[in-house]
Amino acid sequence: MRAAHATSETPPAKPRSQDGGAERYLAFAFAAAELLVETDLDGVIGFAAGAFHTRFGEDASAFLGRPIASLFAAADHDALDLALAVAAHSGRIAPLALHLADATGSGASVGALLMRQPDRPPRLSFAIGPLPITPVGVAAETGAVVDGAGFMRSAERALRDGSNAGLSLVEVTGWQRVRESLSALDRQALEAAIGEAITSGGSVDSVGTLADGRYGVVSAPGADLSRIISRLEATLQAHPAAAHARVAQSGMVLDAANLPTPQAARALRYALARFADGGQEAAKAAGAAGGLAGIIASAEQHTQGMRAALRERRFRLVYQPVVRLADRSVHHYEALLRPIPTPNVPMQNTQEFVTFAEAVGLSEELDWAVLETAIAALHASTNTSVAVNMSGLSMQNADYRKRLLDRLALLRAEDSKFAASRLLIELTETAEIADLHAAASSMEQLRSVGVPVCLDDFGAGAAVFRYLRAFGVDFVKIDGDYVRAACKNQRDRALVGSMIEIAHNAGAAVVAEMIETEAECALMQELGASYGQGWLFGRPGRLPGAK
Q: Measured between alpha carbons, how far is 88 from 98 in angstroms, rounded to an integer?
């Protein structure tokens, strides 16, 4: 084994017992690890030692200043993000099974301790070693296919890293016909074979299923995916029910070019949403052939149509109950957007409608239109409370914050009996917040006048953990993907338990979303969630009591 060590620190010469060296090597020996890494609380590597060259083809010094996530496969980044957040509160990361981002995607056992010294910032000391046995929940094969939300986060990471990674949109045309001709078991087997064909290329960093028969692929800069496409075509041709299917592929470079990074990220989300909904034709119509800048240019052609749709309220709101799990009484309702088909506005489903509004800079107009519609519903109802989704783009804008606070003051002036607590604000992570201080100020002022604040989709991405540290919130909502997964395996159950513990430590109550079964409800209560939302308690509909 070739070992090396490096550090970005340059302290004055002193005994290793004072600068943490003894701690490092004691941990290294105790863990029998191949790699030893120290990071700050954001996961940036400041010290690295061990078999880096053997594993990654680069010396340990090359990893200084990089995020620790760069050591692991993209499909495992969400689990690592959660582990980092847990460690900041609990002081350790219990041994966790992840895949390394090495040539073979080998499994690794990852553990960490939070180290504190009076004269140094806190740091996390990681011991990374081989897995003696592939544990339950860790795939023996490499390159797991993630869901659409997970892929979106992987693609955004690649964009923000500035590595000029490639993004490919891969569509199996005729997939609906294939689905209809197969049993559920045969379909699952074919989907697994498709996933293996796409992920087996060494240049592939992340693969996600965006919709049935539609996949996203993030690959190394300049990578040639022709072999992967050929392998996928051969897989389909070998299956009698899929022999008629064809593969269509388009791509772009994840390069912000002259766009501000947040706007480029919004363009990426919009393009992926269009592809997921309408395939290659929809992606082409969205301007994907011109890269992220082309997407923005194409979207701006429909800006006036979107403005008119918002002005004319070409949408409706439906309301889904959020209940207390202890007795299933309704605590409040969440207002959910449903677009109405509109000429010159090609986005017809909720996700496209929202991502398009953000891409062309209309998120504040959208949020305001939804807010006013929800307030009108509150006035028409009695003894109900409503949660309204609001983008981080709006919450970090000082003018929007003033407008919102003035509107709440007017509400109280118009109706002295109107309680501000009847309106809740759910901060969504559709767009990452650049100005945390401004957003924190917005939420502090909302809470000061009695409006509760909820952090939505907790667990669905690294940014949301930063938000919990930066903001005071009354509720956090556990992402529904974690709720479903927690009933299926112990690893995800432990992750959800850790999320709930973090929320409680921050003083927030927990809402578990997408609860559809009694088993899910019971497990969320057992893990410490106080509130639940999902079809088990009621589907979206009219706001009760509204005239």
A: 19
